[in-house]
Design goal:
By secondary structure, the protein is an alpha/beta fold. It contains 9 helices and 7 strands, in the order βαβαβαβαβαβαααβα.
Length: 261
C-alpha cells in the first residue's frame, strides 16, 4: 500500500499522542483518515486540525468493545471507503508493584493493550483478505516489548504485541498485507494522564510522576514518530524504533539468549 493518496487509514488512539502524529504524517500524503479514540474532545481537535488537509471522520471508541469496533468500522468504510491501512495504536501504561498485582489490574492491562489490538486485527483483517487488495497493519508495542523491565503488567502486553505482529507478518506474507510493529522509546505524549483517567490504581505514582513525564518529554515528538512510521511502512520494515535507547540492553538480551542454547 504505497499509493498513499488512494488509501484510507483507521487509527485507534488517533485523536492524540502517537496516533495523532501518524495521522498528521498520513494527511500530508493525501490519506483519508478515520480517527478513533475514547477521548471525544481530542477527536474534535484532531478533526478540526486535519479536515482542511484531507477527509477526516472521527469515532468515539473503546477498543475493548468488539461490537462497537465492528459498528465503527462499518461507518468508517461507508463514509471514506475501504480501510487498507490499520494502526492499532490505542494503549495505556499500567504500573503496579509485583506485590500489588490483582486480577482487575491484569484485566485492564490485557483488555486495553492486547485485546484492543486483537479486536482491531480481527475487525479489519478479514475485510482486507476478502478484498484481496493488500494493505498494511501497524501495531504499537514498546521498547518494553523487546527488553523487559520490572513493570510486569506493561511488559506482558507489549511482548505479546511484538509476538503477534511477527507471527502475523509471516502468516500474511502471501496475501499482500504488510505488518509492522512500532516499538517506541520515550515519546512526548499524554499517556500517563490517560492511564490515570482509565484507572488510578494502575497510574504512575505521584512520587514518580514528574520524573517520568520529564523522561517522556525528552524523547521524540509525536510528529517525528509519525514520519518514522510512514518511512518504515514505505520500506516495508518489520520493526519501527524511535531511538536507540534500548540498544545496549537488547544486545545483552540477545547475547544471553544465544548463549543459553
Amino acid at each position: 500500500m504505497r499509493e498513499w493518496s488512494e488509501s484510507v487509514a483507521f487509527i485507534t488512539g488517533g485523536g492524540q499522542g502517537i496516533g495523532l502524529g501518524i495521522a498528521r504524517a498520513l494527511a500530508k500524503r493525501g490519506v483519508r483518515l478515520a480517527l478513533a479514540d475514547i477521548d471525544e474532545a481530542a477527536l474534535a481537535r484532531g478533526r478540526e486540525e486535519l479536515s482542511p488537509v484531507t477527509p477526516v471522520e472521527t469515532f468515539h471508541l473503546d477498543v475493548r468493545d468488539r461490537a462497537a469496533f465492528a459498528a465503527v468500522a462499518d461507518r468508517a468504510e461507508e463514509r471514506l471507503g475501504h480501510v487498507g491501512l490499520l494502526f492499532n495504536n490505542a494503549g495505556i501504561v499500567p504500573v503496579a508493584p509485583v506485590t500489588e498485582l490483582s486480577y482487575p489490574k491484569w484485566d485492564l492491562a490485557l483488555d486495553v493493550n492486547l485485546t484492543g489490538v486483537i479486536n482491531g486485527v480481527q475487525t479489519f483483517l478479514p475485510r482486507m483478505l476478502d478484498r484481496g487488495a493488500g494493505g498494511h497493519l501497524v501495531n504499537t508495542a514498546s521498547g518494553a516489548g523487546l527488553v523487559a523491565d520490572a513493570n510486569v503488567l506493561y511488559v506482558t502486553t507489549k511482548f505479546a504485541i511484538v509476538g503477534l505482529s511477527e507471527s502475523l507478518r509471516q502468516a500474511l506474507s502471501g496475501h499482500g498485507i504488510d505488518v509492522s510493529v512500532l516499538c517506541p522509546g520515550p515519546v512526548d505524549t499524554g499517556i500517563l494522564q490517560n492511564t490515570r483517567a482509565a484507572d488510578p490504581s494502575v497510574a504512575v505514582p505521584d512520587s514518580a510522576l514528574a520524573a517520568t513525564e520529564a523522561f517522556l518529554r525528552g524523547g521524540a515528538s509525536i510528529d517525528d514518530v509519525g514520519e518514522m512510521v510512514v518511512a518504515a511502512m514505505t520500506a516495508r520494515a518489520m520493526w519501527i524504533h524511535t531511538g536507540d535507547l534500548i540498544r545496549p540492553a537488547l544486545q545483552q538480551r540477545m547475547a544471553a539468549l544465544l548463549a543459553s542454547i
